[in-house]
Protein backbone atom coordinates (compact mmCIF):
# COMPACT_ATOMS: atom_id res chain seq x y z
CA UNK A 1 0.00 0.00 0.00
CA UNK A 2 1.52 3.37 -0.97
CA UNK A 3 2.36 5.71 1.88
CA UNK A 4 0.42 8.93 2.15
CA UNK A 5 3.29 10.98 3.56
CA UNK A 6 6.51 11.78 1.76
CA UNK A 7 9.26 9.36 2.72
CA UNK A 8 12.90 10.21 3.33
CA UNK A 9 15.84 7.86 3.11
CA UNK A 10 19.57 8.37 3.58
CA UNK A 11 21.70 8.46 0.44
CA UNK A 12 25.50 8.10 0.51
CA UNK A 13 27.47 11.31 0.01
CA UNK A 14 31.23 11.43 -0.52
CA UNK A 15 32.87 14.84 -0.24
CA UNK A 16 36.43 13.51 -0.48
CA UNK A 17 38.33 10.22 -0.52
CA UNK A 18 38.53 9.84 3.27
CA UNK A 19 36.02 6.96 3.34
CA UNK A 20 38.42 4.96 1.19
CA UNK A 21 41.01 5.31 3.96
CA UNK A 22 38.62 5.02 6.91
CA UNK A 23 36.51 1.95 6.06
CA UNK A 24 37.45 -1.56 4.92
CA UNK A 25 34.92 -1.24 2.08
CA UNK A 26 33.66 2.26 1.22
CA UNK A 27 30.07 2.72 0.02
CA UNK A 28 29.41 4.13 -3.43
CA UNK A 29 28.24 7.76 -3.61
CA UNK A 30 24.55 8.07 -4.44
CA UNK A 31 23.42 4.66 -3.20
CA UNK A 32 20.72 4.34 -0.54
CA UNK A 33 21.92 3.59 2.98
CA UNK A 34 20.78 2.27 6.34
CA UNK A 35 22.48 2.51 9.72
CA UNK A 36 23.65 -1.09 9.49
CA UNK A 37 24.09 -1.49 13.23
CA UNK A 38 22.89 -5.09 12.91
CA UNK A 39 26.35 -5.96 11.54
CA UNK A 40 27.78 -5.51 15.03
CA UNK A 41 25.26 -7.53 17.07
CA UNK A 42 27.79 -10.32 17.64
CA UNK A 43 30.68 -7.99 18.44
CA UNK A 44 31.81 -6.49 21.71
CA UNK A 45 32.44 -2.79 20.98
CA UNK A 46 35.37 -2.84 23.41
CA UNK A 47 37.19 -5.31 21.14
CA UNK A 48 36.74 -3.33 17.92
CA UNK A 49 39.64 -1.31 16.59
CA UNK A 50 40.81 0.51 13.49
CA UNK A 51 38.49 0.48 10.49
CA UNK A 52 35.93 -1.77 12.17
CA UNK A 53 35.66 0.64 15.10
CA UNK A 54 35.18 3.51 12.65
CA UNK A 55 32.41 1.59 10.88
CA UNK A 56 30.73 0.89 14.23
CA UNK A 57 31.00 4.47 15.47
CA UNK A 58 30.12 6.47 12.40
CA UNK A 59 29.55 4.38 9.30
CA UNK A 60 26.29 4.13 7.38
CA UNK A 61 25.84 0.92 5.38
CA UNK A 62 25.35 1.43 1.65
CA UNK A 63 22.61 -0.80 0.25
CA UNK A 64 24.12 -2.03 -2.96
CA UNK A 65 27.85 -2.15 -2.26
CA UNK A 66 27.33 -2.93 1.44
CA UNK A 67 30.30 -0.70 2.12
CA UNK A 68 30.38 2.08 4.69
CA UNK A 69 30.06 5.85 4.44
CA UNK A 70 30.65 8.62 6.94
CA UNK A 71 28.12 10.95 5.37
CA UNK A 72 24.60 10.63 4.05
CA UNK A 73 22.06 13.15 2.85
CA UNK A 74 18.46 12.62 3.88
CA UNK A 75 16.54 12.76 0.60
CA UNK A 76 13.02 12.24 -0.68
CA UNK A 77 12.32 8.65 -1.71
CA UNK A 78 9.41 6.88 -3.33
CA UNK A 79 7.71 3.76 -2.04
CA UNK A 80 9.46 1.90 -4.89
CA UNK A 81 12.83 3.19 -3.59
CA UNK A 82 12.00 1.93 -0.11
CA UNK A 83 10.93 -1.48 -1.47
CA UNK A 84 14.18 -1.71 -3.41
CA UNK A 85 16.21 -0.98 -0.27
CA UNK A 86 14.26 -3.64 1.64
CA UNK A 87 14.69 -6.24 -1.13
CA UNK A 88 18.45 -5.64 -1.50
CA UNK A 89 18.98 -5.67 2.26
CA UNK A 90 16.91 -8.84 2.67
CA UNK A 91 18.96 -10.66 0.03
CA UNK A 92 22.12 -9.51 1.84
CA UNK A 93 20.79 -10.83 5.15
CA UNK A 94 20.23 -14.24 3.56
CA UNK A 95 23.53 -14.35 1.62
CA UNK A 96 25.87 -12.86 4.21
CA UNK A 97 24.22 -13.49 7.58
CA UNK A 98 22.37 -16.74 6.98
CA UNK A 99 18.84 -15.51 7.60
CA UNK A 100 16.62 -18.63 7.69
CA UNK A 101 14.64 -17.61 4.60
CA UNK A 102 13.80 -14.64 2.43
CA UNK A 103 10.48 -13.97 4.23
CA UNK A 104 12.25 -13.59 7.60
CA UNK A 105 14.95 -11.48 5.98
CA UNK A 106 12.34 -9.22 4.33
CA UNK A 107 10.70 -8.63 7.71
CA UNK A 108 14.04 -7.75 9.35
CA UNK A 109 15.08 -5.53 6.43
CA UNK A 110 11.77 -3.69 6.47
CA UNK A 111 12.10 -3.11 10.21
CA UNK A 112 15.63 -1.75 9.75
CA UNK A 113 14.36 0.65 7.08
CA UNK A 114 11.16 1.68 8.85
CA UNK A 115 12.80 2.47 12.18
CA UNK A 116 15.24 4.84 10.54
CA UNK A 117 12.64 6.17 8.11
CA UNK A 118 10.26 6.96 10.92
CA UNK A 119 12.93 8.83 12.84
CA UNK A 120 14.03 10.94 9.85
CA UNK A 121 10.46 11.62 8.76
CA UNK A 122 9.54 12.72 12.29
CA UNK A 123 12.64 14.84 12.83
CA UNK A 124 13.09 16.32 9.38
CA UNK A 125 9.80 17.66 8.03
CA UNK A 126 9.48 17.99 4.31
CA UNK A 127 10.21 21.53 3.26
CA UNK A 128 8.43 22.96 0.26
CA UNK A 129 10.45 25.46 -1.71
CA UNK A 130 8.76 28.37 -3.43
CA UNK A 131 8.42 27.96 -7.15
CA UNK A 132 9.35 30.57 -9.71
CA UNK A 133 5.66 31.03 -10.44
CA UNK A 134 5.25 32.51 -6.97
CA UNK A 135 7.62 35.31 -7.87
CA UNK A 136 10.64 34.06 -5.96
CA UNK A 137 14.24 33.27 -6.76
CA UNK A 138 15.96 30.01 -5.76
CA UNK A 139 18.80 32.06 -4.26
CA UNK A 140 16.55 33.88 -1.80
CA UNK A 141 15.73 32.44 1.63
CA UNK A 142 12.52 30.49 1.84
CA UNK A 143 9.56 32.68 2.65
CA UNK A 144 11.17 35.88 1.42
CA UNK A 145 9.50 37.30 -1.67
CA UNK A 146 11.14 39.60 -4.16
CA UNK A 147 9.90 43.14 -4.26
CA UNK A 148 8.00 43.96 -7.46
| Unreliable spans | 123-148
Query: How many strand elements?
Result: 5
How many helices? The count is 4
Structural class: alpha+beta
Largest sheet: 3 strands, antiparallel
Instruction: Estimate percent helicity.
Output: 25-40%
- Average pLDDT confidence is 78
Order of helices and strands: EHEHEEEHH
Into which percentage range does the β-strand content fall? 5-15%
Which overall shape is indicated by the principal axes computed on the Cα atoms?
globular
N- to C-terminal separation? 45 Å
- Radius of gyration using CA atoms only: 18 Å
Neighbour order of strands in the largest sheet: 2-3-4
Tell me the number of structural domains: 1
Detailed description of the structure:
This protein is an alpha+beta fold and 148 residues long. The chain has one domain. The protein has four helices and five strands; from the N terminus they run βαβαβββαα. The protein has helices spanning 18-22, 50-58, 79-97, 102-123, and strands at 7-13, 33-34, 60-62, 68-69, 71-77. The strands form two sheets. Strands 2-3-4 form a three-stranded antiparallel β-sheet. A hairpin with a 5-residue loop joins strand 3 (60-62) and strand 4. The longest helix is centred in the last third of the chain and has 22 residues, at 102-123. The radius of gyration is 18 Å and the shape is globular. Residues 123-148 have low confidence and may be disordered.
Amino acid sequence: MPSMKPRKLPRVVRLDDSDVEVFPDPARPGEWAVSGGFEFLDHNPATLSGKQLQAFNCGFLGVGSFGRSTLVAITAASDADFRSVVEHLAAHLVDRYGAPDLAAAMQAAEEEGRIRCWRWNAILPTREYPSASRNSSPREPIGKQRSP
